[in-house]
């Protein structure tokens, strides 16, 4: 929490502790007690979840950006030089060798500047600066802030078409951009030698998007851990809001989606901000929390 407050200038919105059968069945972890801190850098939110009991496993030391467990959030900055200098002063752990400017030949990504680093638990993060012709209009408004908000979360997938059937066809997100990225800049950004990526950007009606990263090369990334649990530090879950959780669960069940939750959970204590929710996995194992507010 201190890292996100002090280094990334997020605001703390709430700090609660939850326990009980609702959360055990929702997260698929028995005997759970969680401290949940809700924070935001702008209009978008993240939740930091500490499992007070039972403790999970740390992120594997050999995790790489082309592993299918990879996921980051992209934080938009108003000035890359200022943001990177601030992160250096605060001794963040590099995941990229330094900020990279994507080349002009790549029309979909030309001029975007980006840098990967890690938070204290080893979760990858990205700061990203859009050129004037790219990105949402709100990222180009004048601001005294360096860290503006969260544009998207990016996940590594094995097969883009399979993921599109889940995110586009089942969840209803729309495709807003596609590109194929490679070259020295992409290699140094991802810290993966020979990286060549098929990148597909999706958006819901509102809120941050989801970016699919398919590594066309190298193809040797590790699969999502089959024994991953919600209390493991590698676990991240993307929250998607629906108007009808029961109907969403029936739809996902009908196509044999893997459920983490034992069913649709109904919150009784009003602490987590949802009426009904359940947790599922996408085709690669990434966790998606479907919520009805």
Instruction: Give the N-to-C terminal Cα separation.
Output: 25 Å
CATH class of the domain at 71-217: Alpha Beta
User: Are there runs of 5+ residues with pLDDT below 50, and where?
Assistant: none
CATH superfamily of the domain at 71-217: 2,3-Dihydroxybiphenyl 1,2-Dioxygenase, domain 1
Radius of gyration: 19 Å
Helical residues, percent: 10-25%
Number of H/I helices: 6
Main beta-sheet annotation: 9 strands, mixed
Give the strand content: 35-45%
CATH architecture assignment of the domain at 71-217: Roll
CATH level 3 topology of the domain at 71-217: 2,3-Dihydroxybiphenyl 1,2-Dioxygenase, domain 1
Secondary structural class: alpha+beta
Description:
With 293 residues, the protein is an alpha+beta fold. It has a domain at 71-217: 2,3-Dihydroxybiphenyl 1,2-Dioxygenase, domain 1. Helices cover 17% and strands 37% of the residues. The chain has helices spanning 2-7, 21-27, 80-89, 160-170, 184-190, 245-254; strands at 11-19, 33-40, 46-53, 71-77, 93-94, 100-101, 113-118, 124-129, 147-157, 174-182, 196-203, 209-217, 237-242, 258-259, 265-266, 276-281, 287-292. The strands form three sheets. Strands 4, 5, 6, 7, 8, 9, 10, 11 and 12 form a nine-stranded mixed β-sheet that branches. A hairpin with a 5-residue loop joins strand 2 (33-40) and strand 3 (46-53). It is globular, with a radius of gyration of 19 Å. The protein starts with a helix and ends with a strand.
């Amino acid at each position: 929490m201190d890292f996100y407050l002090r280094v990334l200038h997020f605001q703390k919105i709430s700090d609660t502790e939850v326990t009980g059968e609702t959360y055990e069945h929702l997260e698929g972890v028995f005997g759970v007690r969680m401290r949940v801190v809700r924070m935001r850098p702008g209009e978008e939110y993240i939740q930091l979840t500490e499992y007070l009991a039972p403790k999970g496993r740390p992120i594997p030391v050999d995790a790489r950006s082309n592993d299918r467990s990879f996921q980051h959030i992209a934080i938009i900055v108003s000035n890359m030089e200022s943001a990177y200098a601030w992160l250096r002063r605060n001794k963040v752990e590099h995941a990229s060798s330094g900020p990279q400017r994507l080349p002009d030949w790549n029309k979909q990504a030309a001029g975007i500047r980006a840098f990967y680093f890690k938070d204290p638990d080893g979760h990858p993060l990205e700061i990203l600066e859009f050129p004037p012709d790219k990105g949402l209009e709100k990222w180009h408004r004048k601001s005294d802030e360096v860290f503006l908000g969260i544009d998207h979360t990016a996940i590594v997938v094995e097969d883009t078409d399979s993921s599109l059937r889940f995110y586009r066809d089942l969840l209803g997100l729309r495709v807003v951009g596609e590109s194929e990225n490679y070259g020295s800049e992409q290699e140094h950004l991802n810290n993966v030698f020979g990286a060549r990526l098929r990148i597909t950007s999706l958006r819901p009606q509102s809120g941050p998007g989801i970016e699919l990263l398919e590594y066309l090369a190298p193809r040797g990334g590790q699969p999502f851990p089959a024994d991953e649990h919600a209390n493991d530090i590698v676990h991240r879950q993307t929250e998607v809001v629906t108007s009808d959780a029961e109907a969403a669960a029936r739809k996902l069940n009908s196509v044999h989606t893997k459920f983490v939750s034992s069913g649709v959970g109904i919150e009784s204590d009003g602490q987590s901000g949802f009426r009904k929710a359940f947790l599922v996995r996408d085709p690669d194992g990434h966790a998606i929390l479907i919520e009805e507010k």
